[in-house]
Design a protein that fits this description.
Elements lengths: L2 H10 L10 H33 L3 H12 L3 H15 L3 H4 L1 H24 L3 H9 L4 H12 L1 H18 L12 H9 L3 H30 L8 H8 L1
Length: 238
């Protein structure tokens, strides 16, 4: 039985689509871990990116630090934090927290850099005009800069999301859940169908996430829901 046939047979087997070890449950685990990682990264990266982009302070330092974080191998980072998290929580500290931390670190750079670039890229004359009209700094960010920076921010989220979905499989090496369990168990059991079935599922999820963000970007650029033009934002702010 060749690899393609074995993979298709494993995916078509109804027994693999039920129970706590089934594909739907593993998919849900994968989505929850990825979503939590992305949410935590957004809570850190977006406010910092907005502040740096708006004020212009520490921009080079932040971008260089973010690029340095991108160079950190996720598996190595998991290995570094695992002894600490396992000591704090023998269960989740071994199976969940290391992968979660690694994915948050992985997701922060593209979100932070794109948010900073998007906010900093707003026409400074338009920002000064908003100040002249009496807008507060918070008002400038909320009503002027964020609407105009929406497209690069979403692009950063798209990049981070795809990376997180792909990297979430590493958590299974340490006993975590998600679609990575099929890869780990398939290799351990010498079951090519299960191994590459897991690969197909992870790839399909990553492509689905990529497609969803591409659709969102297309909506932002579309004539009906195009990001707010500078003239319209200035008029609204006034």
């Amino acid at each position: 039985m060749d690899l393609i046939t074995a993979t298709a047979a494993w995916l078509a087997d109804g027994a693999h689509w039920t129970g706590s070890q089934g594909i739907p449950n593993r998919l849900l685990e994968h989505l929850l871990l990825s979503g939590l990682s992305l949410g935590l990264a957004m809570l850190v990266a977006i406010p910092i990116g907005i502040w740096i982009g708006h004020t212009g302070r520490f921009a080079s330092f932040a971008v260089n630090l973010a690029n340095l974080a991108r160079a950190l191998p996720s598996l190595a980072l998991i290995g570094i934090v695992l002894p600490i998290t396992a000591a704090l929580d023998p269960q989740l500290g071994f199976k969940v927290y290391p992968a979660l931390i690694a994915m948050v670190v992985l997701a922060i750079p593209p979100i932070l850099v794109n948010t900073q670039a998007g906010i900093a890229g707003v026409d400074r004359d338009l920002v000064e005009a908003g100040r002249a009209m009496g807008m507060t700094e918070a008002g400038l960010i909320r009503r002027l800069e964020l609407p105009l920076a929406l497209e690069p921010i979403v692009a950063g989220l798209r990049s981070a999301s795809v990376q997180v979905v792909a990297t979430a499989t590493l958590g299974a090496i340490f006993g975590g859940g998600g679609l990575g369990r099929f890869l780990v168990e398939g290799i351990a059991q010498d079951d090519d169908g299960k191994t590459f079935g897991g690969v197909v599922l992870v790839a399909a999820l990553a492509l689905t996430v990529e497609g969803a963000f591409l659709f969102a970007l297309r909506l932002i650029r579309s004539p009906g829901l195009r990001r707010t033009s500078p003239a319209r934002v200035a008029s609204s702010a006034a």
